[in-house]
C-alpha cells in the first residue's frame, strides 16, 4: 500500500516483550488485582482509582488501576523487574497498551536505507554475541554507508555491521566480474565467525581469493569472515545449470539444484531438486553432499525455502515437494500437487523425522525456526484449499498461513495456528526471541479475518504484519508494518527486533524520515519502550 511506514504505536508504561496481559503466555506473570481500570478511573479525564502499590512477583503492579484516555496517573509503585510484565510507574497510561485496550507493541526507533538509483535489497540480518546487527544483501551502483561510499557500477554482495544505536562499524563487499549475478542471501554468526552465503555468476572477487565461475548460469558461495569483516576463506558450491538460494544450517548449506551438484570431484545428477553440502568445522572444505528429489522429475521444482539449526548443529529444513520425497527414513506421504515438507536432521546429516503438509491445492513450507527455550520447532506454511495430510484446516481465502509446532526430537505435532484473509497471504520472515516465542512477518492483501483479534492487535486492511506466537501456539500480539517487503528478522536478547528487506516507500521512525531513491534495501530496529 503506497504510504508511509508509521512508527508504532504505544510508548506504554508496560515494558515487557509484548504479550497480551489478559492472557499471558506460559512462564509470564499474570497481573495482580488492580491491573484493569479502577471503578472511578474510567471515562475521559478520570483519575486512577487507587494509589499505585508495590510490584507483585514478576513485575506486575499489585494495585492501582489503568488510566482511561485523558486520565491522570496514580502514585508510582515500586520498580518492576525489567523482564517481567508491567513496569512500576503507576498504572498503564492512556488508551490501548496494557489490559483491555490491547497488547504492548514494539516501536520503530530507527531505520537505514541502502540504495541510490537502482534496485537494491537487504536479504539477511544476524546478531553478534553483543546483540548488534550485521546485514547482507545485493546492491548496485553507489551505496552510502556514512561516511563511506562504495561503488563498482555493477551487482555486488554487501555486508555491513552497525551498533545497536545505528552507528556504522565496518563493511565488506564481494564483486562479480563483467557485471554478473552477485548477491548475499544468508548470514550466520558463530562465535567469532561471520558466515555469508550467496549466489554469483562470472568470477567473484574476495580478499580471501577469487571464485572462478565454471559452466551454467549461477553458483552458490560461502565466505567465512572474522568479526571485523575480514574474509578468511571463500568456497563455491557448483553444479550444472543453477545452484541457488543457499541458507546456513549449522555446518550444512542447503541449496536448490538444477541439473547437478558437484563437489570434491563428485557429481550428483538430478532434475529440479534440492540438495545440501556439509563443510568442515573451519568451513574451509566441503566434506559431503546429498540430493533430494520427489522422483517425479520436471517440470516442477522440489525446493528448500527455509532452514534453522541448533547449538549442536542439528538442523531443520522446509520447502515444497511434488511427490513422495525420501529424506532418509522412507518416502513421506503427500496429498498430490505441491505439498509442504518439514524435515529434521542430526549434525551428521542423518534424518530424524520428516513430515508433509498438503491438500489438493498448492502448499509450500516457507520458514522453519528452532526454539531451544520453547522446546518446539515452528514451521510456517502457505496453503490453499483443504489440508488432508499434516492437518485438516481449510483456507478462508485464496492462500492462508498455517503455523505449526513440532517436538524437535520426535516430530510430533503439538498444535496448529491458521491465519488468513479472503485474499493471498504470504510468509515473509521469522525468528525467535530469548523466551522462545516466534516472531514473524507476513503479507496480507485483505483484512485478516482468521487468527487475529483485537486482543492481539488491530491490523489495517492490507500490508505487512509483524506478530508473535508462543511455544504453546498462542498468538501474543500483532501490528502493522505498512507494506515493507521484509526479508529477514533477528531478535536480540534484550527483545529488540531487527528487520531487513526492501521498500519503495518512506520510512518514518521516531526521529527520522527516510526517502528511498528507487527500491532500496532497509534495516530497521523496533524496541519495547
How would a crystallographer describe the biggest sheet?
Answer: 6 strands, antiparallel
Output the structural class: mainly beta
End-to-end C-alpha gap: 27 Å
Low-confidence stretches: 1-100
- Give helix % range: under 10%
Number of strands: 36
Outline, from the CA principal axes? globular
Strand order of the largest sheet: 8-9-11-12-15-16
Rg (CA only): 24 Å
Beta content comes to 35-45%
Mean pLDDT: 80
Q: Please work out how many helical segments DSSP would assign.
A: 0
What does this molecule look like?
With 529 residues, the chain is an all-beta fold. Helices cover 0% and strands 43% of the residues. The protein has no helices and 36 strands. The strands form nine sheets. A six-stranded antiparallel β-sheet has the order 8-9-11-12-15-16, with no helix packed on it. The protein has a five-stranded antiparallel β-sheet with strand order 2-3-6-7-10, with no helix packed on it. It starts with 106 loop residues before the first strand and ends with a strand. The N terminus is likely disordered.
Which keywords apply here?
529 residues; mainly beta; five-stranded antiparallel β-sheet; 36 strands; globular
Question: TL;DR?
Answer:
This protein has 529 residues and is mainly beta.
Mind sketching the topology for me?
Layout lengths: L106 E8 L6 E7 L5 E7 L3 E3 L2 E3 L5 E7 L5 E9 L5 E9 L2 E8 L3 E2 L13 E8 L4 E9 L2 E3 L7 E7 L1 E4 L2 E4 L3 E7 L6 E7 L10 E7 L5 E7 L17 E7 L5 E9 L4 E8 L4 E8 L3 E3 L10 E7 L6 E7 L5 E8 L5 E7 L18 E7 L5 E6 L4 E7 L5 E7 L3 E2 L4 E2 L5 E8 L2
Antiparallel strand pairs: 1-36, 2-3, 3-6, 4-5, 6-7, 7-10, 8-9, 9-11, 11-12, 12-15, 13-14, 14-17, 15-16, 17-18, 19-20, 20-21, 21-22, 22-25, 23-24, 24-26, 26-27, 28-29, 29-30, 30-31, 32-33, 33-36, 34-35
Amino acid at each position: 500500500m503506497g504510504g508511509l511506514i508509521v512508527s508504532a504505536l504505544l510508548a506504554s508504561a508496560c515494558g515487557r516483550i509484548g504479550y497480551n496481559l489478559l492472557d499471558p503466555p506460559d512462564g509470564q506473570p499474570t497481573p495482580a488485582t488492580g491491573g484493569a481500570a479502577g471503578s472511578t478511573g474510567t471515562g475521559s479525564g478520570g483519575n486512577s482509582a487507587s494509589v499505585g502499590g508495590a510490584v507483585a512477583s514478576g513485575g506486575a503492579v499489585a494495585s492501582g488501576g489503568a488510566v482511561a484516555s485523558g486520565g491522570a496517573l496514580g502514585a508510582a509503585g515500586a520498580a518492576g523487574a525489567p523482564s517481567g510484565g508491567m513496569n512500576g510507574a503507576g498504572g498503564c497510561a492512556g488508551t490501548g497498551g496494557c489490559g483491555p485496550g490491547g497488547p504492548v507493541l514494539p516501536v520503530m526507533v530507527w531505520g537505514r536505507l541502502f540504495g541510490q538509483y537502482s534496485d537494491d535489497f537487504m536479504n539477511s540480518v544476524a546478531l553478534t554475541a553483543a546483540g548488534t546487527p550485521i546485514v547482507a544483501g545485493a546492491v548496485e551502483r553507489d551505496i552510502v554507508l556514512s561516511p563511506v561510499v562504495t561503488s563498482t557500477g555493477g551487482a555486488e554482495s554487501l555486508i555491513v555491521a552497525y551498533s545497536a544505536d545505528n552507528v556504522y562499524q565496518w563493511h565488506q563487499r564481494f564483486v562479480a566480474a563483467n557485471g554478473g549475478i552477485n548477491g548475499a542471501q544468508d548470514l550466520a554468526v558463530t562465535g567469532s565467525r561471520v558466515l555469508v552465503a550467496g549466489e554469483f555468476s562470472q568470477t567473484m572477487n574476495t580478499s580471501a581469493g577469487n571464485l572462478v565461475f565454471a559452466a551454467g548460469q549461477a553458483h552458490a558461495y560461502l565466505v567465512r569472515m572474522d568479526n571485523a569483516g575480514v574474509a578468511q576463506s571463500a568456497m563455491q558450491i557448483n553444479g550444472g545449470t543453477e545452484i541457488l538460494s543457499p541458507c546456513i544450517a549449522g555446518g550444512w548449506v542447503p541449496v536448490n539444484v538444477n541439473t547437478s551438484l558437484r563437489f570434491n570431484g563428485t557429481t550428483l545428477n538430478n532434475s529440479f531438486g534440492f540438495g545440501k553440502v556439509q563443510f568442515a568445522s573451519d568451513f574451509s572444505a566441503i566434506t559431503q553432499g546429498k540430493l533430494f528429489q520427489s522422483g517425479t522429475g520436471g517440470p516442477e521444482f522440489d525446493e528448500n525455502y527455509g532452514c534453522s539449526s541448533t547449538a549442536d548443529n542439528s538442523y531443520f529444513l522446509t520447502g515444497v515437494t511434488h511427490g513422495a520425497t525420501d529424506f532418509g527414513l522412507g518416502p513421506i506421504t503427500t496429498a498430490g500437487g505441491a505439498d509442504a515438507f518439514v524435515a529434521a536432521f542430526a549434525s551428521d546429516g542423518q534424518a530424524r523425522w520428516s513430515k508433509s503438509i498438503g491438500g489438493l491445492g498448492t502448499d509450500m513450507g516457507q520458514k522453519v525456526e528452532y526454539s531451544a527455550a520453547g522446546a518446539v520447532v515452528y514451521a510456517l506454511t502457505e496453503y490453499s484449499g483443504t489440508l488432508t495430510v499434516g492437518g485438516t484446516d481449510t483456507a478462508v481465502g485464496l492462500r492462508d498461513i498455517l503455523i505449526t509446532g513440532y517436538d524437535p526430537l520426535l516430530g510430533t505435532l503439538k498444535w496448529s495456528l491458521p491465519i488468513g484473509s479472503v485474499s493471498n497471504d504470504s510468509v515473509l520472515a521469522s525468528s525467535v526471541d530469548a523466551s522462545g516465542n516466534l516472531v514473524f512477518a507476513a503479507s496480507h492483501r485483505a483484512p485478516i479475518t482468521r487468527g487475529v483479534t483485537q486482543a492481539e492487535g488491530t491490523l489495517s486492511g492490507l500490508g505487512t504484519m509483524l506478530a508473535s506466537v508462543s511455544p504453546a501456539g498462542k498468538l501474543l500480539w500483532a501490528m502493522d508494518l505498512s507494506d515493507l517487503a521484509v526479508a529477514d528478522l533477528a531478535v536480540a536478547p534484550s527483545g529488540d527486533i531487527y528487520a531487513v528487506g526492501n521498500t519503495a516507500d518512506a520510512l518514518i521512525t521516531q526521529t527520522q524520515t527516510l526517502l528511498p531513491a528507487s527500491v532500496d534495501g532497509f534495516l530497521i530496529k523496533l524496541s519495547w519502550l
